[in-house]
Every structure is written in structure tokens, then in C-alpha cells.
Specification:
The structure is a homotetramer of 200-residue chains. Chain A folds into two domains: 48 residues, Helicase, Ruva Protein, domain 3 (Orthogonal Bundle), CATH 1.10.8.420; 121 residues, Dna Topoisomerase Vi A Subunit, Chain: A, domain 2 (3-Layer(aba) Sandwich). Helix content of chain A is 46%, strand content 13%. The first copy, chain A, contains ten helices and six strands; from the N terminus they run H-H-H-E-E-H-E-H-E-H-H-E-H-H-E-H. Chain A is globular. Chain A starts with a helix and ends with a helix. Chains in contact: A-B, A-D, B-C, C-D.
């Protein structure tokens, strides 16, 4: 390697999630041969991310001058429901479905005993605080993944929410069943049981 | 290839579903080096499949002297429900879940316009006949896969069942939702919608 | 499972290499719904494999009345060369290339310390015996795979062949280099080194 | 999407090779939650790539004040050989093998009739010019991949090099054969033929 700058760039990129050293090298050489203007625009966009903040209530990324994001401030959303999702991209995907019209809460990940570092970013205490102050919220929908970690996270939230449940907050979970593409030959017992009981 | 018998065997095996020519060759040479007794047992078991019949009502494989299989003849099954499944292996997998205690109907595949040959084995007319005579059956559960072909097949069965629906037969489908392993980031709109509406 | 014969068949098939229980079940039900004539032909072909023997010299499968296979008995093959291959299918693939016109020796596998059972079928002692009696053989080409196990097997054969090497037998190995599809970005050092030294 | 800056960043990243929209989104949100210092370092490294240049002779990335890179200027490399490689990463991988001690030429890709855009970056004319002036170069080794496009590119370079071949330049290609991991059962005829002819 004759260029320390390329080497440094490959090392920086390799630390990003999902980028191995090979793809990092490929991206580095690609950017080296790109126009200077493209690199400058890319760098500026990265710098400008500092101006993006997270909503004080739901933790979505937004650029409003207010503490709240547009969705949390909107009079058109049903303020009696909060859907707790794991990640920013879950939120984007759910909004695309166009079915849900309540508020959100972006947890920032799942409880994962095997990767304790990833838990540091979880906003569990902030969720508790939000529920403490949540006037008019009647239902919290736990939209975690149907995986062991997602289930574990949902159970934990159910536990810390008990004081609010006693005050009539309803905690629900997304329904289980056949998802698009499921074949009966490969379905596990729990999926079949839910699909059977939810038949219509 | 110096052995016409090996060659013939490879060709016979290559026609079986899921066996390419390479795996067929591997199996052939493996059997060639197996003990004579193993080959004879294998051949005899294949011959003896002729004594296996399919149940006159549900089309499961069985070896009873009667026309009906043990499950269809059992007094312990709920005779007011029939679950229509695509394949023998769907039936085995559902029984393993231990949730359903009614009767079954093994269709023999799905309606697949792109593979008309596979439809020849479908027992749709026989299903119609069974429903015509089905005294005491109150519900038919269509347990087809959550795939375009599975949905298409379910809709077709709903259509041909209309005369029975008018006589109070209930036709249901397995519930949709998150199946085990589903992540919200990758869920399609229909799966999310069902999961949301079926929340609890 | 209501048919013990189907169950027995699935178990027999599951033991074959490369067939898991699911594919075994799929094949079993497929054969159940096949015509009786097909099953009988399949069973008969399996039985008839007993008449296939392995050549006394090269261990290929053949059906001649003689001990030798047609290739070993042919006057058109170069009798001064023997190519040692791992498996029957390696032999078929090499013959298809149409480059080599000498004799063969099918070893029956590789030396694999991790799977000692698979070594029982190796014809190493028989190879030694053949080389002892091999009048006029000038070269033995070790055509084992370029894998750790293939290399290990080749080295072992080189060791047991030392007495014959002293009597002027030449032992060679297939050349290393870029194989079709190789990309330089992913090539290991040994492959590159051979490719570089064998350049032309 | 409530943050136009995030949206812009995802779009910029999606254009990079090997990054789909989903991975681009994942990276964007990851960077949003990273420390400001990390983002600034990343941006600065991207900007600083403008100071990296490509060697006037071999087109490697370097940061010398001279036109030539360290390798091209080194007295320790054999200046009578030039190895033509497709990509920067091929060069890195070959150097790691520690076998070759001559000079290099980084072509910048392969001739790919199906992706004409990718050919714009190919330094074929520059290669012709370098060979015109190459005093003392006795051999050009075409180290393109053993793929149809790599072969096509090597043949094209052989054609444009004919004037130099007449003046005693030798053009070679890397040797073909079994590469690490190759199994005889799956080897194509050309690979086997080369491996057989290069045996030793």
C-alpha cells in the first residue's frame, strides 16, 4: 500500500456495519477515481448530519427547529397510540404500508445479551419517562421483530410498563401468523398455532 | 460410461424431483458400493409402496384394510372441521404442532398456471364431492401457503364451495401476521397490516 | 405418520449421501404417487446393480465377463501412464475432456483424518499392489483435488511409491494455476505463484 | 422521511458500487448516531483523497511529490518485466504473495462490451504509449482474470502489442491449472487440459 490516506480511509470504512475490508477497499478506490466535486459533496453531507437531530419524544431523525418532529407535532395522527419499533428503518417501512396513524417510539435496537455494546444505544429509560408523562395514551403497540431478541425486548418493556398498565394503559403486540411467502411445510408450531387461532 | 446399468439408474434418478444429474450419479455409485442386502431392502421397500393406499376421504397415505385412514376413522377427532392442505408434508408438519384436532384433506398441490402438468394430480373435483356429502362439517379451513399460488388456489376453492356456503358451511383461511423470524424492516405491507389488525 | 412403509422408506433414503429427511420425504411421496411400473423398474435397476462389478485393475464400474474393464483392456490407450483419481465422477469428467489417453486408477476417496469411516473404502493397498506388478508403467499422475485432503492423499501415495520411484517410475501431480473463473483479486499466494511460474 | 439531509446522504451512498438502498440507509443512520468527531474525520479523509495521485507509469495510487510511485522508482525491482493487472486490489493481492519483483501496470478494469461505461476508465492507450517508450522491458505479463472478459482483454492487448513483439518484446499470460480448492469432478475441460499439460 503506497498511499497512507487510502489506507486510513479503508480502515475507517471497515469499521462501519456491514462493510468488510474488501468492500471498503473497493469503495476507497472508487472514490479516488471519482470527481473531486463528488467527494466534496459527500464530505459536506456527512458534516451536515450534525444538524440533524432526533425528536425529543419519538427519537426520529428530523431537521425542525422545534424539539418535536413533524409527525409528533401533527394534529392528524392518533395521539392515543404509540408504536415502539426497533430501528429507524422499521419506522420507514411501516409508514410505507400506510395502515397505522398513531405515534411512534424508536427504541434504537433490541436487548441483546450477546452484544452488550449494542444495548448502550437503547432508549429504554427514555421510554419509561415518556410513558410516565404520556397523557391520553391508551395503547402501546410493541412492534419488535418475531425473533428471540425481539420477543425478549418486548417482554422486558411489558415488565417495566406494569405501573402504567395498572393505570389502564394497554400493551399489545403485533399478531403472529403466516407472513407473505410462508409455506406450511416449513412453518414452526408457534406460527401455525397463531395462524390457526387467527383464522377468518 | 462403461456400465449401462449405472447409466440407466442415473437416468431414472435424474427424473425425480430435486435430484440433478450430479446427485443422481453420486447416489448411483454409492449404492453400487453398498452391500447387496441394503440394495435388496431398498428395492423391496419400493415394491411394497404398492400396498400403501390413499384414504378415500382425506387422501392420506395409509395401510389399513379399510377405505378410511385411522385419523378419518378416529372418534377422537373433531368431525365438524376439515383442513385443506397442499401436500402430505404440510399435513405431517401441522400434526406435529399438536394444535388442530379436526379432519384433513390433502389436495396434492396448488393451482399453478405456469406448470399445468402439476395440476393433473390436484384433487379438486374429489374435494367438491366430499363437501357435497359432508354431513356435520361446519368449517373448512384453507391452509394453503401464503404465496401467490397458494392464495389463488384458496380463492378457487372458495368459489367452487359457494353452494355449500349457502347451506351454512363456513370457509376460513389461516391468519396472516408476523411468522417466526419476521423482521419489521423487511415485512411487506400486507403482512404488517394483518399483524397490526391481529395485535393483542 | 400412518404408513409404516413410507416411514421405513424415508429412513432408508435419509441415510444416503446428500439426502436430508425433508428431501427423503418428498421423494417417498413422489414415488408413492408414481405408476407401479415406474417403481418396479426402479427396484429392478437397483437389484441389477449387483451384476455390475469393478475392474480388477482400475476399479471402474463395468459389466464385462472379463475381470478387466473395456478401457483397461483396450489397445488404444497408452499403457505407460496411470492417472489416480479420487472418485468415479472425477474419472467421467476427465474422460469428457478428451485430453488424456492413458489408464486410470479409482482410489475411492481421499485420506480424511476427520472422517475415518470414509477411509475404509480407499484402495491404497490395492494401488501399491498394482504398482508392484505394473510392467511398462512409466508415469503415475496423481489427479487428486487441490484441497488439503487431496494434497495429503497425494503426498501419502508419493511416500508409499518410493520403492517404485527408485526403479524409475515417475510420479507427477496436475499443474496448479488459474482455473477457469479465477480472479486475481481473490487468488491465494500458492495459486498465483504457480500461475506466475507456469506463465507462457 | 423527515430529514432531507439523511435522504440526500442515502441517495449519494446508493450510487456507490455494491451498496444497495437498504445498506445505504443503515450506514446513514449509523453515522447519524456516531460522534461528531468520527464524522468529521471521515469527511476530512474523503477530502484528502484529492491529494492522492496515480503514478505516471503504473497508475498506482501514491502520495509522492514525484510523478512516479515508490515501486516504479525503486532500484530493487526488476525493470525488465511489467505485469498488467485489472484493478488496484489485484495489485495489492499479488504483492502480498511476495513472488513477483518486477513492475506493474494497473489497467483500471476489463473490456466489457456489455458495460461500455466501465471501459471509459480503461488505460489502454496509455498502455500502448508506455510500451512505446519502454526501454529495457523484455516481458509483459498479462495477469487478467481467467474469465471471458479477462481473456478478451488479454487478447486485445496482445493485438495492440504486435509492433512491440516484432521488436522482441515477449508477451506472456499467467498459467492455467487447478487453483486452490479445485475439485476434479467440477473442473472444466480447459482447466483440466492445462493442469495435465503442466503436471510435474
Amino acid at each position: 500500500m503506497q498511499s497512507p490516506k487510502i489506507e486510513q480511509f479503508i480502515q475507517l470504512l471497515s469499521k462501519l456495519p456491514g462493510l468488510g475490508p474488501r468492500q471498503a477497499a473497493r469503495l476507497s478506490y472508487h472514490l479516488l477515481d471519482e470527481k473531486k466535486e463528488y467527494r466534496e459533496m459527500l464530505a459536506q453531507t456527512i458534516i451536515s448530519l450534525t444538524q440533524v437531530k432526533r425528536c425529543a419524544e419519538c427519537f426520529q431523525a428530523h431537521e425542525q427547529k422545534t424539539a418535536l418532529c413533524l409527525l409528533c407535532a401533527s394534529p392528524n395522527r392518533d395521539r392515543s397510540r404509540i408504536m415502539v419499533v426497533e430501528k429507524d428503518m422499521d419506522f420507514s417501512n411501516i409508514e410505507r404500508a400506510g395502515v397505522y396513524d398513531g405515534l411512534y417510539y424508536i427504541l434504537g435496537g433490541v436487548i441483546s445479551p450477546l452484544r452488550p455494546k449494542s444495548q448502550e444505544k437503547l432508549r429504554l429509560r427514555e421510554l419509561y419517562n415518556r410513558l410516565s408523562k404520556a397523557n391520553g395514551v391508551k395503547e402501546v403497540i410493541l412492534a419488535t421483530s418475531a425473533t428471540p431478541e425481539g420477543d425478549h425486548t418486548a417482554r422486558y418493556i411489558e415488565q417495566i410498563s406494569e405501573p402504567f398498565v395498572k393505570k389502564n394503559l394497554k400493551i399489545t403486540r403485533l399478531g403472529r401468523g403466516l407472513s407473505t411467502g410462508s409455506e406450511l411445510e416449513y412453518s414452526d408450531a408457534e406460527t401455525f398455532k397463531s395462524a390457526y387461532l387467527n383464522r377468518k
